[in-house]
Amino acid sequence: MGSVDCRWWPNLPRMALLLGVISMAQPSSNENSPDVYASSVIHEELIKDRARTQAYKTTILNNSALFKGKVVADLGCGVGLMSMLAARAGAKKVYCIDSSKIADTARKLVEMNGYSDTIEVIQAYIEEVDIPTRKIDIIISEWMGYFLFYEDLLPAVLTFRDRYLSPNGVIFPSRARLWSGLYSDTQWEESRIGYWKDVYGFDYSPIVPKLKKEQFSAPERQHLKPDGIISKHMLLADLNLYKTTHNDIEEIASTLSFTFLNNATIHGIAFWFDVDFEGPEVSVRLDTSPSSGYTSFEQIIWYLSTPFHAHTGDTVKGGFSIRRGSTSGDFDVSVHFDKPVGLSLHTYDQGSHNLYQDLYERIEFEHSVYDSLPQLEIKAKGVAYFIYFLGGCLSMGLGFLLGTGCICSRPDR
Fold it and tell me: Which residues have a Cβ under 8 Å from the Cβ of 107 and sit 6 or more positions away?
C-alpha cells in the first residue's frame, strides 16, 4: 500500500470554513432568480475578483472624458460600484438598476459615499424598467456568467439597448468572444480516477463507472492549468454588442477543428471567454482563459469518460452548440467529435444553479492548500503522525503565549 499524504490535516479547520463559505455561494435554486443576488456572498466574490473589477475601473476612469456630462445606465448594478465609478468619472446622471433586493444595499452605499444627487438606484427588471430621460449615452453591464452565457442577463441588456441607447451611445463591454481548446491533465486523471484504486487500503474501482456517469455527463467549472491546453485555441463565437440580436444568441453553433501542439492524452474540452471594453482613450480586455490566473468566472471543462490519444499535428474535427433550454436561464450544450474518434456529448437545462464544481479542487487552486503547507508522507502512520500533531500543538501553544504564532498576533501599539 502506498504512503498516505496528510498535508491537509493541519489546515482542516480552515478548509472546513472555506467549504462552508463556498457552499453558501452555490444556490440551491435557479441563480436566475433575483433573490439569489440579495446575498452579500456573491457580490463579495465579484468585487474581490481583481481582474474583473479592475477591468471596469480602468475602462471608466481612464475614459473620463467620455463619461463627463453623460447619462449612464449600470445594468445589474449589484452593490453599485460601477455606478459610483461612473459618477466619479463625471457622469451627469447614473441609473443603477438591479432586480434583486441588493438594490436597497446599493442605495445605502451610494448615499454613504455622497453620490445620491447623481445616482438613482432602481429596483426593477432591466427589460421592464422605465427610464425618465428616455435616452442613455453609456451602458455598463457585467452580464457575463459561467460559460459566458450562464448568467442569462444578456437578453435583458439587448432589450434595454434597443429601447434606450442613443444613436451614438457606447456599451461596455462592447465585444465578447467564446473560446475553446482541448485539455490534458494526467495529474487530474490520477486524482479523480486513479484515486479509487486504493482508498485507505481498499479497492474502490467499481465506483468509477458511477462517478463518470454522474460527474462527466455535463460540463463543470474549474480553474484549469494553462499548460493543460494542448491544441490551438478555437473561436466559437464573436459578439458585437452594438449589433447582436436576440436571435443571434438563441443558439451559438460552430464547427470544431483542433490541431495538436504536442503528443497528448485528451481528457476533456475546455471553454472560456474574453470581453473587450473599447473606449476612445483606453481599451481594456478582460480575459478568463486558463493563462489569466484567478477570475470568479473560472473556466468550463467537459471531461471525457474515455480519454483518447493524439499526436503532434493531428486534427480533431467535430461540432459544438449551446442553445437556450426549456427552462428560463438554462441551456442545452452539445459537443461531438467525428475525427479521429466518434464521440457525442449532450447536456440539457444546465445553468449556474446546477453547474458542478469539485470544491476540493477549488480550494487547492484559490488557497494553495497543498503548495503552502509542508510536505509530509506518513509511512509509520501512528507514531509519525502523533509526533507531527504534537509538534503542531506545541507550535500553536508557543504562538499563543508569545502573541506572534499561528493562533494570534499581537497588534502594534
Answer: 80, 121
Query: Among residues 31, 45, 111, 142, which one is catalytic?
Result: 142
Where would I find the beta strands (DSSP E) of 241-361? 251-259, 264-278, 283-287, 299-310, 315-324, 331-339, 343-350
Q: At 23, which helix (H) or strand (E)?
A: helix 12-24
Over 189-211, what HEC string results?
A: HHHHCHHHHCECCECCHHHHHHH
Active-site residue, selected from the candidate residues 44, 120, 128, 151? 151
Query: Could you confirm whether 250 is annotated as catalytic?
Result: no
Contacts of residue 354, Cβ cutoff 8 Å, sequence gap at least 6: none
pLDDT in tens, 245-260: 999 999 999 999 999 8
User: Letter for the amino acid at 289?
Assistant: S
- pLDDT single digits (tens) 350-402: 998 888 887 666 666 666 534 443 433 333 334 444 444 455 455 445 444 44
Q: How far is CA 171 from the centre of its chain?
A: 22
3-class state of residue 78 by DSSP: coil
CA distance 196 to 13: 25
User: Could you give the CA distance from residue 307 to residue 299 in angstroms, rounded to a whole number?
Assistant: 19
Cα 325 from chain centroid? 21
Q: Give pLDDT tens digits for 207-237.
A: 999 988 888 889 999 999 999 999 999 999 9
Residues facing residue 255 across a β-bridge: 319
Q: How many CA atoms lie within 13 A of 141 on its CB side?
A: 28
Which residues are CB-neighbours of 129 under 8 A, at least 6 positions away?
95, 97, 122, 160
- Of 29, 134, 32, 136, give the one whose Cα is nearest residue 76: 32
pLDDT digits (tens, 9 = 90+) for 289-301: 999 988 999 999 9
Q: What span, in angstroms and rounded, lies between the C-alpha atoms of 221 and 104?
A: 31
**128 flagged as catalytic:** no
pTM (two decimals): 0.80
